Amino acid sequence: MYQQILVAVDGSETSARALDAALQLARDAGAKLQPLFVVDVPMLVYDTPGSDLTHARNALLERGENVIKDAVARMKRAGVQGTPRIVETDLAGDDIAHCILRAANDFKACLVVMGTHGRRGFQRLVLGSVAERFLRISQCPVLMIPAHSAKPSANGAQTVESIKEPS
Description:
Blueprint: E1 4-8, H1 13-29, E2 32-39, H2 43-47, H3 53-78, E3 85-88, H4 96-107, E4 111-116, H5 121-127, H6 130-137, E5 142-146, E6 162-164
Parallel strand pairs: 1-2, 1-4, 2-3, 4-5
Antiparallel strand pairs: 5-6
Helix pairs in contact: 1-3, 4-6
Protein name: Universal stress protein UspA
Family: Belongs to the universal stress protein A family.
Keywords: Plasmid
């Protein structure tokens, strides 16, 4: 089964569901878990004349630290071992999906768990989808946890929208 599980967290309800699923899998398999938060300062901030990038970056780092602190507390309550990580995108074209891929490779993840908002149409076109981009480039299995359509089963576990095994 899985030995090393990476879960992408961002503080959203969707990523909390993904963390729940990853905690359950890690506990059941005796796997190590790495919650991962990616700091991504939007390009819009860089394009604004006179903008102070350190303020935006520091705010995102603080948010990441809070999200990771919560994940570690939940890991302790679940009896799951692992080390959280915060990474940052860079201006050289690195996006969140590629940061997650690099972190998964560094961690030698057997599985990556992430939430998906399930946006469609114009919203998906405008906002994009980190989950979809990651799914396309992943080199290991990916477990997608849906945002709103996840229904608890009789034992309280989330149903899973999809799992992708690499070709």
